Amino acid sequence: MRQKRLPVGFSVLFAVLAGLAAYLVAGRLMNSETRNTGTELKTARKPRIVSMAPASTSILVSLGVSDALVAVDTWSGEIHGVPADAVRFDMMKPDAERLAALEPDILIVSAITQAGTSKDPFKPLEEAGVRVLYLPTSTSIEEIRADVRRIAELSGRAEAGTELIAQMDSGIERIAKVARTIPGNERRSVVFEISPAPTIYSFGSGVYLDELLETAGAVNALGKESGWIAVSAEAVMAADPDVILTNASFGEDPVAEIRSRPGWSHLKAVRTGRVFYIDNAASSQPAPGVVTALGEIAKAVYPEYFR
Q: With a cut of 50, which residues of the chain have pLDDT below it?
């Protein structure tokens, strides 16, 4: 039975959705560039790292440098591998003075934080010599690769970053190779919920989750839309998808909740029993875990091809 709380991944997506317009403007203007991070950090000791975004924290854990984390945002604190003694901070209201007292060498920040404040709260740390990296949420697998590469180089783990990307690519290609053999007339349409009723959210094109669906051979039933979107029950009924996926893990049983919605028993996905849960942490963070999410999506949509 799942706990009734916002899981780390959903919380972040909710924050993205709540401030989407401002975030996207700030994120794209940043053009995924880094300030004061031109080269790998050189230090005689292990670098002290602060990560203020779950995606970057997941990447650091995957790179094997979680022991260097001296502080994380509160949502990152739930990620397996984060040190219990790492200080937790509010991602949207960071205490810059308290951060400075930790004497970090590297500070990785979500562009959501920058977009949500009128004044850059991390400017004093940057001026004091802290390497500050602002990361907009990646919208594609290629951007996730770039984030891994950038964080690996910055933390002195460039080789590990190369290996991690190779592992990601290998896992993705295994799925894509099989997906390419699925005939066009067998392609199944999918609605993927990231927030359940009564406030249903999903996505159209231009989102890494849409790319995962495509890689798995599925068709996004809402693909004519763009970005993260609010979806009405009527819109889902009109789309009548072959499969419904959800990663909303803060309910007791999100799959049962979907199946029990009034009027939804007539949907093709519900009638045929094709409603599935996809791991939230893997699917809602643009990080290496998306490969796990891709595998779960492929098996859910095409169990006959992905056994």
A: 1-41
* Domain 182-301 falls under CATH 3.40.50.261: no
**Distance between CA atoms of 99 and 71, rounded to whole angstroms?**
8
233-239 long-range contacts, CB within 8 A, separation 24+: 233/197, 233/200, 233/261, 233/263, 233/264, 236/191, 236/200, 236/264, 236/267, 237/263, 237/264, 237/266, 237/267, 239/189, 239/191
Residue pair 113/92 in contact (Cβ under 8 Å)? The answer is yes
pLDDT at 197: 93
**Is-contact 37 132, C-beta < 8 A?**
yes
Cα–Cα distance measured from residue 90 to residue 12, given in angstroms and rounded to the nearest whole number = 12
Q: Check residue 122 and give its pLDDT.
A: 85
Tell me, what's the pLDDT at 45?
Answer: 64
Domain 8-156 architecture? 3-Layer(aba) Sandwich (3.40)
Residues of the chain with CATH 3.40.50.1980: 8-156, 182-301
* Res 117: pLDDT: 57
CA dihedral 89, 93, 99, 105 (to 10 degrees): 90
Alpha-carbon dihedral angle through residues 142, 189, 266, 233, given to the nearest 10 degrees = 40
Q: Do residues 62 and 167 lie in contact, with contact meaning Cβ atoms separated by under 8 Å?
A: no
Predicted TM-score (pTM) of the model is: 0.86
